[in-house]
Amino acid sequence: MDLSNDKNFLSFVTNGEIDPNKKSGGKELEDYLKSKLEAAYPKKYARHFKAFYFAEHGYHPNGGNLSGYSSHGADYVVVFKSRNNQTAAHEFLHSMNLAHTFTNKEAFAHALYTYEYAKTDNLMDYSHHQGNDHKRCSLFYWQWENSQFFNTITAYNEKINIIHLARTIISTMQFSKNKYNDSNSR
Length: 186
Fold this sequence. Notes:
Elements: E1 13-14, E2 17-18, H1 29-40, E3 50-53, E4 58-59, E5 65-66, E6 68-69, E7 76-79, H2 87-95, H3 141-146, H4 149-156, H5 159-184
Parallel strand pairs: 3-7
Antiparallel strand pairs: 1-2, 4-5, 6-7
């Protein structure tokens, strides 16, 4: 979508950068973008996850640039020019209710474990900030298990249920086979 001449969209610009802290017509940036998408393609993407990429920088009130954002349980991500290869995945995982690895449970109920800031290679860490050489490339097992990822996929694609069931059956069969072999070897 080209919004460069949209007067209402220009309400989201601060110092030449896209500012998600502003509103236009009472709408947050992500709601404005989704409404424009819906107007251009009625009902076509209503049940889809939406990714909005900007060639412009994201405004951050404390200086620097905002690389992207989403929120817990959301159906969207917004990423800006300063993004890196992990930004969209990081924001997508926020939408699946994953917190930063350095967030504690008191700050966010879904934060089951707390790690030191910028000390892991986890996608939900900020280890990519200047001065760190950690590459964000992993998730902890508990994050995978506690995200809404499988629930979301299952809601959109029932075949995943069949695959999960097949894996469970195979896993159970393997366990039974090993148990049987162990009892016969005594």
